[in-house]
Automatic annotation (TrEMBL):
It comes from Leifsonia soli. One of its GO terms (cellular component) is plasma membrane. Residues 7-17 have a biased composition (Low complexity). The keyword Mitochondrion does not apply. One of its GO terms (molecular function) is transmembrane transporter activity. Residues 35-434 form the Major facilitator superfamily (MFS) profile domain. The chain crosses the membrane at residues 35-57, 69-87, 108-127, 133-154, 166-189, 195-213, 249-270, 282-304, 316-334, 340-363, 384-406, 412-430. Gene3D superfamilies: MFS general substrate transporter like domains. This is MFS family permease. It is found in: Cell membrane.
Length: 434
């Protein structure tokens, strides 16, 4: 059989050709931006719907009390997030070394999506907490591999000057995924379908992205073998040598703690403080997420556009942190369900500003042009780690808060406000980006 040349293989497989270190594309390929947005939407829909709604009620159905459910939910989400923490940078680094004729990123995107669907089936059918835990760990590992590979295509495909706009559009997928998941769960009463349907949507959108993507590929296998040392190196960087990257990591960690880490216990907050039943809580979460989505849809594309236009990233991150602090304080002291919904709208405005420039800022402080996906994976630990630490420490903080006049969940939201404020302050330690 005649071996295809690199150019012929690229044409046959839809790849853009050989990856060269530090190369920047002249223009964004047609169809890339909507396809990247779609795959992010699908994966986030599959990941965030359980985190924000369905997992809490799945665990509650398997638990004897709300207190037991709170502890079990913290265990499942905390351990699962550790798997996300490992899988994201590891898959990113391995995709940087992938020499498949179909490209560097495609195999990870498609393979991870398929594994994720199988894991959702396991969770939906589970009759014990331990089976749910195993399934959720598989979901986090597989779908975070998809995210790592998909988002690593941004510097491969998009010129630097256009990354804020693309990042802003991708940022909109987070509130849309949250809203979409809340909408689905509002009309699905079966535990199995609550997990399986979002997983299938993620798989379909991943297939579309793989079909559209003109993936780059390596000309030859890396000369160095992937060693144990490199494996552990997938999770670290030199904060002294790459200070801007280090401050970017901390900023992202604190802001994401205030946003994603805090949101998990909203179903229990609604049922305990406002005495809502399961369907009432789900309906309220849908309205709250709708309000948050409106806020994000307003601030995210505007933030991305203004960030590119002004050539600045830091002010938008700082503003995001401050606005989220205001929203969390309102949430902590909400006297009615209506104020809870208002608080979520304010948090959405802040989160939209953050997501609009987050990825664009990150790509400007990466330590190495040769390890793009690995470095983005390390940065994405700041996404995953709050979702591990927050559920782990939440039961203790909520228990302590319950002994005060404020209340356990209110203390938890105030704690998140303080952490988010730290992120707003630390972004100005980044010196290489305006």
């Amino acid at each position: 059989m005649t071996e295809l040349s690199p150019a012929a293989t690229a044409a046959a497989t839809g790849t853009t050709g050989i990856k060269t270190p530090g190369s920047t594309p002249a223009r964004t390929p047609r169809g890339y931006t909507p396809a990247l947005s779609a795959v992010n939407f699908g994966v986030l829909l599959a990941l965030l719907t359980p985190v924000l709604v369905s997992m809490a009620f799945k665990v509650q159905h398997l638990s004897a009390s709300t207190e037991e459910a709170t502890a079990q939910l913290g265990l499942i989400l905390g351990v699962g997030a550790l798997f996300a923490l490992v899988a994201n940078p590891l898959a990113g680094r391995l995709s940087d070394r992938t020499t498949s004729r179909y490209g560097m990123r495609r195999p990870w995107i498609l393979g991870g999506s398929i594994v994720g669907v199988g894991a959702f089936l396991l969770i939906g059918a589970a009759n014990s907490i331990w089976v749910v835990l195993i399934g959720w760990c598989l979901v986090q590992a597989s779908l975070n591999a998809v995210l790592a590979a998909a988002n690593a295509t941004l510097p491969d495909q998009v010129p630097t000057a256009s990354r804020g706009k693309v990042s802003g559009l991708v940022g909109v997928t987070t509130p849309l995924a949250i809203l979409g998941g809340s909408f689905l769960i509002n009309f699905i009463g079966d535990d199995l379908l609550r997990f399986l349907i979002p997983g299938l949507i993620a798989l379909v959108l991943a297939v579309i992205f793989v079909a559209v993507l003109k993936d780059r590929r390596l000309a030859e296998k890396p000369k160095q073998r992937f060693t144990v040392g490199q494996f552990f190196g997938s999770f670290v960087f030199n904060p002294v040598k790459h200070r801007d990257f280090g401050w970017t990591w901390l900023t992202k960690f604190f802001v994401m703690f205030g946003y994603a880490g805090i949101a998990t216990f909203l179903p229990f907050y609604l049922t305990e403080k406002f005495h809502l039943d399961e369907q009432g809580a789900i309906s309220t979460i849908l309205l709250a997420n709708l309000a948050s989505t409106v806020g994000m849809v307003i601030s995210s594309p505007i933030g991305g556009y203004l960030s590119d236009r002004l050539g600045k990233r830091r002010p938008f991150v700082a503003a995001a942190g401050v606005i989220m602090v205001v929203g969390l304080v309102i949430l902590a002291f909400a006297p009615t369900v209506g104020i809870v919904i208002l608080a979520q709208a304010v948090i959405g405005l802040g989160a939209g500003s953050f997501f609009s420039v987050d990825l664009a800022l990150a790509t400007q402080v990466l330590p190495s042009p040769d390890d793009t996906a690995k470095d983005l994976g390390v940065l994405n630990i700041a996404n995953a780690l709050p979702q591990s630490i927050a559920p782990a420490i939440a039961p203790g903080i909520i228990a302590l808060g319950s002994a005060t006049a404020i209340g356990g969940y209110s203390v938890w939201y105030l704690f998140g406000a303080v952490i988010a404020l730290l992120g707003a302050v630390l972004v100005y330690r980044i010196k290489g980006v305006k």
